[in-house]
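ok trying this again, last paste got cut off
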Amino acid sequence: MTVVFFSDIAWDSLHQRPQHLATLLGVTHRVLWVEPATLGRPVVWTPRGQVSGVVRMTLPAFPLNARLHWIRSTAVFLSRARVLREIVTIVQRMLLRRGVRCVRAPGEEIVCIVENFLFMHLAGSLRARRVVFDYIDDVFGFAAFPAFVRSEWLSALRRADVVTVTSPTLRRRITEAHDRAVTIVPNGVEYDRFARAGDDAPPADLPAGGPPVIGYVGSIYPWVDFGLLERTLDAMTDLRFVMIGQVHPDVTGAMSRLAQHPNFTYLGLKPYAEVPGYLRRFHAGIIPFRRTLLTEGVNPVKLYEYSAAGVPTVATDFSDDTRAFADIVLIARTAEEFAEQIRVAVGRRADAAFTAKLAAFARANDWKRRSEVFLDILQQHGT
């Protein structure tokens, strides 16, 4: 069985659900990872091996969700021309056929996992035995898209044999738009990688000792509540706050204001392999999101990673779904509560019973279990 995995992110971007699933599926099956061309990243027109069992390739695509506003606006404008979309589709299909020939054994059946629904028509062109639409974020919360994008989204819901989502909110939004079955498959964590005892040397830019460290790891994008963070930094000068991740151009000003606080440090974007070493030095992990269309449907990977590292999580009330984790997540509805819950989390960091609960939660949500769910879905016949 050849798995064609249509990702909406590049392989070498933030390491998360797509890369984990593709890597684990590649242990037992051939996987062709198909990603959209992303400005600023190298393109892989000729398929090449990425990790064991996974071959990577790039297809041209309109960068409708580009980080830079002018690129995003230009892409939206050009994509409205049907003839240009048809030309891009022809090129995509030609390159994809070549990629499949490089990976697929003669006569081997094809199955597809589609996370980029604008590639769903390509899955159809492969005559795949089974197509899974894995909808992991509410894409309409990222940016304003031309009207045809929603039509493509609805078409993907109709075409897929199985639809999976990461959260109850995403399932509800799909069933409100289209009457079909939807399966929730939450995110997860590489438990062993993050739970390993912290006997390694501390990162050079996060030395041991000093005030308790409160950390955030993930995309630093407009959905982060920077006003809340500024108030928290002012109120908790005895604690050290660090952020790790890629900064969106629209929030550079907000990050500059945070940097004016002596108890705040931005540590940059770290390779995935180095992230556990930082998390294990945190006394608490935070998820300071604003409530938006996007965040209401988010199932944060960082929650699982914090928990595997034994780090208590403090989150804003950004989603009703988060309340399902109330036994392990400290939820704050105001700035004052956010600061109070951070104090509680720091105290719980040394609570063996609580960290054991975090470990049990993370272990039960290992990516290996998630990949087994998808493998079972892909191997089923019928709809």
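PB: full thing came through this time. The two ends are 18 Å apart (CA to CA).
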